[in-house]
Structures
1.
Amino acid sequence: MNPIMDIPSKFPRWIEPAEVDLVKAEALAKELNISLPLAQLLFRRGICTFDEAKKFFRPSLSDLHDPFLMKDMDRAVERLMRALDNNERIMIYGDYDVDGTTSVALVYSFLSTFYSNLLYYIPDRYKEGYGVSLQGMHFAKEKEVDLIISLDCGIKSFAAINLCNELGMDFIVCDHHKPDESSLPPAYAVLDAKRSDCNYPYKELSGCGVGFKLLTALCQKTNRPFDTLLPFMDLVVISIAADIVPITGENRVLAYHGLKQLNASSRVGIRALIKVAGFKKDLNISNVVFGLAPRINAAGRIDHAFGALELLLEQDETLVTDRANQVDDLNSSRKDFDQRITEEALAMIEAEGQANARTTVLFKEDWHKGVIGIVASRCIEKYYRPTIILTESHGLVTGSARSVRNFDLHEAISQCEDLLEQFGGHMYAAGLTLKKENLPAFKKKFELVVAASIEENMLLASLEIDEEIPLSRITDKFFQIVEQMAPFGPGNMQPTFVVRNVKAKAVRLLKEQHLKFEVCCPNTGQRIAAIGFQMAEFYKAVDEGKSFDLCFQIQENEYLGKKTLQLLVKDIKFVEDL
């Protein structure tokens, strides 16, 4: 056995690019004046005509859908306008994650530009749990609230909304999670594009996106220019990035223009957050996901989301630095919890003999509730399968679930509904609560449900290749066109390319963990710099001159003011010498 060939790839499964109609791709390439590989790249993303390409590369706010296409929007706006006209007290209620926090900041800060009888509320993750809480409804009644608008939650909050009605308050739900198939909560209006009776053309808005559509509809009905909403789009793009919703359709338009607003934001809290995150250039979606979102999230995970919300709403520049530093400190604490619990969880998988199961379901009563979703994702990085991490809260077992590529986690959990107190979420992420005595039965049933429906290839970490290209194709012009495909994210991931049978020169290790080298094409002698983070295990084989297939993304590297193209290595597969 050749020891070089035994070096495992980061991704056991490389998904080769789908075939496209070459004749049509060539025609599109000619019409757009781009290379054939770029045209094929567009085809694989469903962009097959000049007009589709124009909309894709130049997202326009005019492409946003009429908000009144959403079921109940007319009722929601009518009730909100009545509250504004009669000076009723309005409470903006949101979830404690990034989507919920930005949603509250969006609706509260926009309404407060012309209306003052407002207050906001975010539940305590540990005392009240997910969704609209009974405690929150009693708080609203004490504050003499007339109308409550929930954001990023509420679609399954039957008990709380029933209580709200009994207490004489009206309720508008703005949510984007899956409703119950049989019924909706008894709210005055329910805005959720995933309602079975809702014909809204785009189903993947974030919670903040639904709030944005409500405000758009309000502007239409009250003759306010749409442009008055533009300064608030920085909050929308943060929600889109953090909630990992597809960056397609309307979300692409909102993200594209939201990034422009974010990078020009006059919101002092966001500027302070960007500073503590260490960003000095314009932000992209990845910067938001890995830089801003974890800090906003940390407030609700470790303490209370009010800290992050107040930072987003703060207008006093003398106060935002301290608030941003507090959020940054909470994020550091979150990392410590995350690392410790992940180590414990991975050890438990081995100790409990779950290494060969189709699922991971782990419970420990003292795990920190605020980081178990992150821990579930970390476990999937090691053992690639649907994972649920559980802890104890108020006498019940509660947890977060994460899925693998193409497996509907929400559907699998729904088949175990008889053992649960409540659950909700998406295809790839969900939350659930159950009684402790039901945990053994749930673990067994969840494993059986997943084992019966998951395909073997779903249990292999995969890397999707967009295009196979020669090194000679990687030019400044090629890169510039690829960059115009941004913003990148689910549904429009940054293109990943492969070159075959290449070798490396000038190989070295950076900080004993990062692989740096030049890719060399044996036929042409062309070279281009490449870097593979956390890929030290490939160093010896690459340095020995073995041929390999290289999977990569293209990026721009700037050093001493000079910009050059560089390949960001995603994976390496060695090939036998010919």
Note: The radius of gyration is 25 Å.
2.
Amino acid sequence: MKVCIAHICAALALSASAALAGEIVLFDAESGTGKISESSRAQKTPDGYKISQNRAKIIGEWDLSKNLDFEIEVKNLSETSSCPLQILLSDDENVEKLKDPALNTMFRLAPGEVRRATIKYPRPPAHPEVAAKMAGMRADPFGYAQNSKRPDLSKIRAVVLERHWSSRSPFEIRSVRALEHDPNGVPAWRNFGEAEFFPFIDKFGQFKFRDWPGKTHSEADLEAARLAEEKDLAANPGPADRDRFGGWTKGGKFKATGHFRFEKVGGKWWMVDPDGNLFWSHGVVRVTPSSAITPLDGREFYFESLPPQGDEFALFYETKDELLAPYYEARKIKKTYDFSAANIFRKYGKNWRDAYAETAHKRLKSWGLNTIANSSDKDIFMRRKTPYVERFEIKGPALSGKAAWWPFRDPFDPAFRKNVADNLKSRSGMTDDPWCIGFFVDNEIHWGDKFDLARFTIMSPASLAGKIRFKGELEKKYGGISGLNGAWGTKFADWDAFLQNREVPKGADKKDLEDFTSLMAEEYFKVIREEFDKFAPNKLYLGCRFAGSNENVVRIGAKYCDAVSYNRYADNLKKLKLPAGIDKPVMIGEWHFGALDRGPFHPSLIKRENQADRADSYYEYAKSALENPNVVGIHWHQFSDQAATGRFDGENFQVGLTDVCDTPYAETIAKIREIGRDLYRIRQAAPLP
């Protein structure tokens, strides 16, 4: 039989043509197809274009309503750090700050990795009116982010590869293609109308229309999980080389003071526990039965089995989270339901509070965790079976100015010092408690740059004590108002006019602004230190949990705090260093990873592909912390998942060590146990940099 080569080639060409019929080439470096916006500052490379900015914006005009599978070839140009990238779509090429709704398009490149990835952008629901009823969630079941503009997919003008804020890794873009998606390849529920879709949350607080490993379907599942975990905890009571506090019994003996303290040993910072053993804080934030309280106002139709008043489960309309309750009240949220506590009641019975608290302590010890971190349930940590850390926020007059995080309170106001003292005095049962490690004061304050506290002071009312102090400092330097006017290029009639002014003069002397910003920061930390010395001399002042800061304020804080603390959401802590010349213990107050393969609709601040990837990331982060000579502890945020339908601010993150039904995430727990078992060996063996 003769074979016609020409016919074969023609058939192959026809097949390839058919396969690519639905493909739209958005960008291809090799062929020169597509255009990257000049704002991306792309640099040509042999294989593509290097992007050192946060985003590569490809501009053009496309109808992508049928092409939502994106095939992307890209390389991480960093050999040391991963590069998380997300696809964003916009129907306006000039938009500077895209608010793309899609949350499930992020993927991560390992250091040096080249990948051809296929990312599926969320298909629009068949009934937009269903998606339009989604509210109060950072992310909804359809994969859309809260308060984001959904682009017109038929009129796309920009396709963006954006680097996640946690990374600075440059990347190389080689090609981006939009492939035609299968309209039938979507779950049936995405095509439901209102009558079929609502309610979409089951009685356990879970999404009804999707299944996953470990999902609870019945009370029998809860009972089976409880019995299985009882056996697991009995078989794995925790590492044997630990004292009652979780300190290391094989690390040598040190001075025992009856309280936790810091000591540098072998070139590395450690804690020493009350019994004189080395201690490294491996903990978790928000150990509480009420992690999944969710607002019901205007949303009761989301939930299929809310109990009637008078039912025993009506109790969970009333249970509160002590830390977060004020935020619900401030937002005038009238009605809530506590799904996590309700499930704990189902699981443990009438004595659920006590049973859950005792189980929490057993879990922590079994898993190799040794600290109940801040914002946890007092009934749990005051059982004094696991060391704990607490946190309080200072109240009082605040500086003006737009705050990215928590506002900065005026330390020159007498109310500031009184509030610190009152907070410590009200915790007298903790300030003398050997099980209490210490306290964080405040959280993620908006420090701004090295000039900003002075700028915020100028923007504040004339009555602000700090502004009056600023006036006094300037008077000492310049004498009369004419001296200030000459230096700043202002036209204040007198010093009262300076106080009344609330706009930062363009000519304000940078040295004056920097000096007063430093004075503000100095007063802030100094006052807190003085009150600790009066009312909590045996407890560690663990700092303010920096999220954004500047080198100057870190240097000032390090003078007064026992430890410098950061909330550090990142792949690892390999690059974490204090400013040159500062050698202090460092505490990590928050970190986490999450995924979308189980539970809530939002993958957290740092997304991972799945639970196995999340577990590996836990180990990598914890190991990097143990190998950092300054880090003395890390506290995961948080113990259990948030509500699928969001808390007071919409957060609905998959970040728990347990889910809404109190079921541990097996993959993550296995890795926590692995690092927890070897905690002290890794710390001691880590080479000094």
Note: The mean pLDDT is 93.
3.
Amino acid sequence: MKTTSKLQFQASGNPQDGFRLPRLLEALFVVLIFLELLAPFVTTTLGLDGRLQLKMVVEFNKLLSSGILVPTWAPDGFYNFGATSFYFYPPLTFYLTSIVGLTGMSNPMALFQAVSLLATIASFFTVRWMLRKVGSSGYRLSLASALYAFAPLRVAELYSRSSLSTHVTYVLLPLILGALIAIVREDGTSRTKRVLLLALWCALLALTNVPITVMMAMSIGIAAIAVWKKLTWNAVGEVALAATIAAGLAAYHYASVLSAQSFARLQYLYFIHRPSDIELYFHLGPGTYHLLALYAGIGIIVSAYARLRWKRVMLSDTEDTVIRIGLSITAFVLFLDFFPLSAAAWNAFQSLQLIQFPWRFYSLLLLFAVIVVGTARSSRVARAAKWISALWIAGAMLPTILVVFNVHVFSHFESPLEDAPEFLPIFFNPSHVSNGGTMQETIDQTLQPHASDPVVLGDFTLGERVERTMARPYHETLSMMLEAPRTITFHRFYWPYWHLYANGKELHSRPDSIGRATAMLPAGHYAATWQLQRTPLECAGLWISGLTAGGILLLGAVGYIRQKRKIGGV
């Protein structure tokens, strides 16, 4: 690794000033953009994870409006027995829906669609900002930005999977790449500004989507290996410092993940990969994502072929660097996608398990593809850019039309909003196991008969009485009048961080046969209180994030004052 050379992104070679798509293709692209912008206003199409997403939007907004600024437990989950959703699910997307909700919009589907539309538009401008850093301008800049904002799988993410958080990450990925470019080039901004911007974008990504965050971290490592001879130690140090600050900013959320991971069914998030999974390529549904990722990889390989086969053709520094990095990441993705070879690697490394499937890399492959389009200078790369554009537009047209005309793939309005089984506490023990049924069906069979149960259940005598006097999401008070000690079952799942107090003392609680909280309460007339409390690790995470954010604000204020004084002195 050199200590003086820099990775260059300036354009060179023979500019193709006449680069332009055929008029018919341009017209089709304009129609596609119009349809995708129209879709949120006219469609009712929702995908596989749609009900879960809408459920969490409702729950998160309700908790925020109750004054809980950092939600963890979802009290209304699983028929009001509670869910651990927000201990694990990154919160940024739900904060965005809450901000949009300040406009008076309350329907969860409308909030979902509004945030998705804003993310589409925002990603156009963030990728445009990043492309300017690599020398893109004019027609190529606008075309590449639009291809990124209206790409095929983004339609699938919103309307086939309904993964709003993944859609939001498309806004952040160009910001991270642009910040990395600024660090590598030492582009004239202060070192502090470069580090803080990269740290902020990385922290927001970590608070949006875990698989994409892990994917991005792996890809940065692969890119560093691909161009290590051109990196400087200063650049490596700045990236490491930014990663440390980002970890501090996101610590409050991941502290709750670490606190609660052993008490939830997170094994449902992991997959056993088998060589036979290659059959996914030949089925609709999940196979569609694999094929799209493969197409993206093939597109990058085609552009890389220009560098490997026609070395006599002068490529710009940008083209050379993008193709080198893109080819390295693509080779890794294609290895992961060929399960007969990669199944052992998937099952051996926890970080790969978090990514779940290779198509998670699609967003980054798309980013490299649009850089190729936006910086196409040599004749051969310009030709490849036109083919990439044509494939992208054709690939997005059909699914967009299906969405606009409300062609439903999954039934979703016929059943109520539901929670994901991985957010179910492990203390839940289904008493009715359906033969061959899904986990959700098993949950419904077990809990639905108990959905209308009262607040407490117990063998009470005529003079005894238990009434709920206060009910808040994370605090509940009951008035107890018992003639003798009684075992009482409450209408909530047992969770270790829910603590029961009576007469100034904490009472021991435990799960019953299906996981509901049960406790022995003493005789007498008194108030009993349930309180959800944060663990020491959660509190430490809040302190770390708070101190990190406070330090950044203080540093920014000092820099601003110094700049003002410098200007005043001049």
Note: The longest helix spans residues 536-569.
